[in-house]
Protein 1
Amino acid sequence: MTQTDQFPPKDVQCKCGNVLTLDKQSDWCTKCVRKVFYHQKNQRRHQFNTIYLAVMALAIVFFLVYAFIEMVIIPMSKL
Ligand SMILES: [Zn+2]
């Protein structure tokens, strides 16, 4: 199953109030350029993925900062 699969046209309301007629899995809102999904379930999954990626990015940044302090700042302060 790909993104280009045809769906029966369905009216989906965007969060900004604009109503789009979707005939595919997802499309960009013509008013606010937000992603609008044919199935609300996909929208929640998309939001979850976005939050998950943000948390992962934060965790990586914190780890790098921690590793930097542990391996560079502490040995240097002991000299
Ligand atoms: Zn919109």
Protein 2
Amino acid sequence: MLTDEEVARYRRELGITPEKVGDQSRRGRTHGLLSTYRNGCRCDPCRGANRDKERGRRRRNGSGRTHGIVSTYVAGCRCGECTEANREAKAAYRARTRRRAS
Ligand SMILES: [Zn+2]
Ligand SMILES: [Zn+2]
């Protein structure tokens, strides 16, 4: 029969540390994902995923285009950021014209 202390030591040696929730969840996660970063992980791959997302929002990505703006959407890009920018612009335009018309 192991004492609690021994159990804890074996767990630490095996890398199982339920006392440290942060460590345990870090092991079970898929890293390099924005969702993992948002869940609180700050490891390098996850921070990188967050950085890429921030960068992609306004700056050029590999294709040389600036995403998240209407002109890129109009030019034919249908990525999530450009589609969203177009949707927002459309909604703003509709709001303006509606106000003018009434
Ligand atoms: Zn991570
Ligand atoms: Zn785009």
Protein 3
Amino acid sequence: MDSPLNGDIVAGGHLRRRLVGLETTPGNGGGFLNFSSMKEETKKYFIPINRDTVKPNENAGQDSSKELVGVRHWFYISGEVPTTLELSTDYHIVDMNWDSDGNVEGIIEAFDQYVKVREVLTSAEVLDKHELRAEYIEYGHRPVPDFSFEYEDVEVQCGYCSSKFSHTMLKEQEEYDNEHDLYLYSTEICPVCNRGGCCEVEYESAGSTDL
Ligand SMILES: [Zn+2]
């Protein structure tokens, strides 16, 4: 029939299909597009903490750490700077200052070449002093928890391709969506068919009272 009602139903049908195509699979962390109709079922798994791996953390509560970012060789030379020191391509001299007596105070920056630098420096007969100065940056982080632990190895099954594998093989992915200027996350990605939200996993909370 040519009633206006028919047209409405067709329009409604189009709209509904588009929404189904953009549906976000529940439990996959949100934001990633999946065609949920292609999946048979989403299986749910609980991943318990492996009691044998629970260890108290020595640095529990610590909320900052230091990281070595460089090693500087401070040296003092009484007399001429040897050309072997200046010409080496293994490192670079970042600072040299001459005093009025012609002695040199200098700094070499070398993160992983300190053995070589030390060799070159100590082979220079005019070397007077040499000190290694490590440089750290300190950065803040969440307080280290009281315990560290690992989870039990649980076999899970993909709801799309039915493959079975360890939950540790599930992958996560982050993608940048240019058009909408946001990050899309996909979790529980199957290592075999690469589809997100292939199952649901719930990890035991570290706050369990019997740990
Ligand atoms: Zn799969």
Protein 4
Amino acid sequence: MEGANALTFMLSWVSHTDVQDRDYKFLRKAVEEVYEGVECGDGGPFGAVVVQNDQVVVSCHSMVLKNTDPTAHAEVTAIREACKKLKQTELSDCEMYASCEPCPMCFGAIHLSRIKRLVYGAKAEAAIAVGFGDFSADASRGTGFYQKAQLDIKRADSCRTGL
Ligand SMILES: [Zn+2]
């Protein structure tokens, strides 16, 4: 996918009032990672940030191409890096901000890491619209399951990130 498409992808967010201003601050950071990842050619246009006590622990983007690893999605990479940095296998006191609705694998990782809250920007459908396969997006429609599992999930869906 080209950078211009990634930009359109992120700008497709519409205003949503359900997400707090602090959420936008961290979402913006996740979107910055999108641009960095695309620029470096590390992977697709996806970014994820792990936040603990209002501080960014790690800020990552997809490393699928760089690591030739189909599981190196931004969210999984962020969880791995955050756990390493915090020297713990649970992130129950952390929140995740993802540029796009996580795929099933990432939801699984988020679930296992016990991250307490997830805020994401674009819907998975937006990724399909700009050329990403729908097989991962299809399965990510099961977010209700994770919401039941005590994970607070919010869709930010806004252009208020200022990009
Ligand atoms: Zn994923």
